[in-house]
Specification:
The chain is α/β, with parallel strands linked by helices. The chain has 3 helices and 6 strands; from the N terminus they run ββαβαβαββ.
Amino acid sequence: MNLLIDDIRDLNVDVIARTGEAGINLLKTGLFSTVYLDYDLGHGVTGMAVLMDALKYMKEIIIVSGHPGGKAMMEEYLRKRDWTCFDSVWSKP
């Protein structure tokens, strides 16, 4: 199943979490194979905080953020942990 964690955007996925906190709780269920993740999640935790938790549970991550600085930080975080990106999909080593 696919999960979108975004406070505004709607995509054709199975489940949408509108806050970082809700997204982290859903990730912990282990039900999702791919997460679509925004950086700006309104009030509360950012997409970066969610990303740090997501690495424990996910095999694929797609960053859907329009925030250039936030997106760059998230991509660098994944690179430093040896995740690879092909066609905008980040995969676990």
